[in-house]
């Protein structure tokens, strides 16, 4: 065998290369968790929100310096580096942007395009990273000067096609002042960051989920005792079917939580509280969670029409204040699915609630709304994170 390889190397040197010029020993593996699907956001841009799962099977420490989304010709579309990249990395071992040997992390991307720009057939990830060796104490040290691998390296990979466009649906609520808490796409919220493994497969069911709470005419979430359900004027608001469909999953066996405190008695069965899943067709399933006990107006197998009242907004399951958790997914199980984007037919935006340092969740005070951001009417668009929207009758 040695003679055969030697002869091959002599006859055709290019075939004997261990790595070709476009092949990089990257120390880390990078792959998208699922195919991204485009959606028009309330900012007038088309969003591709998806995640890169990064694993480090090497014995080196690897720091992510820059991550770009590029088109098939290598042209950059979107990029993150430094602190901006760190804010969109969730590390499962180690910390920040550095993956220790055997570590893994998720990088959350929000690649956006102008509304009228044709999307590429696929996108790839270009990664710039730095290696460090593991010292005798197991901590990172600079790579030796005579190391066979360079400390800094770059590669392009993790290709993914672009999936089907977002489904356009009617709003699930009516009235003014609904806030899209924990919405998409520019931050790692409790929804976007909820990557989980089900039956050995990574899932991101809540990628586009929204927790809808309602401000009153004075921009208060509640008046009176924060722990009393009656303090929240929107508690019991009718919840509407967003499309025609069939009820394929249902749970109605848990009581209300006390608002203003930690949820109790949570398990995998009741985490969504009293809930419904409606098959809207074409691989789109609508999920409504935390409904009032006994308020569900339908049963398994029932057909519903867009606009039908299907239940009442409650505070059941993993909930610390009355709200409607809503998202669309690619299967009937709220956790064993990947989240899909959706666009509401019409809404009026009031602006964006300032969440940092806000205390309107805990005290009967007005929320601060930046009315310069995203204000105005929208059609066939997705409300973005913490946006305040009005839905028509």
UniProtKB/TrEMBL annotation:
InterPro entries registered for this protein in UniProt: Cell_wall_metabolism_enzyme, Dup_hybrid_motif, M23ase_b-sheet_dom
The residue range of the signal peptide is 1-16
Keyword Heme assigned to the entry: answer is no
Instruction: Indicate whether NAD appears among the record's keywords.
Output: no
The GO molecular function terms of this record are:
metalloendopeptidase activity
Q: Which residues cross the membrane?
A: none
Tell me where in this chain the M23ase beta-sheet core domain is found.
235-336
Give the UniProt keywords, A-Z. Signal
Q: State the source organism's domain of life.
A: Bacteria
Please state what the protein is called: M23 family metallopeptidase
| The organism of origin for this protein | Xanthobacter dioxanivorans
Q: What is the lineage of its organism?
A: Bacteria, Pseudomonadati, Pseudomonadota, Alphaproteobacteria, Hyphomicrobiales
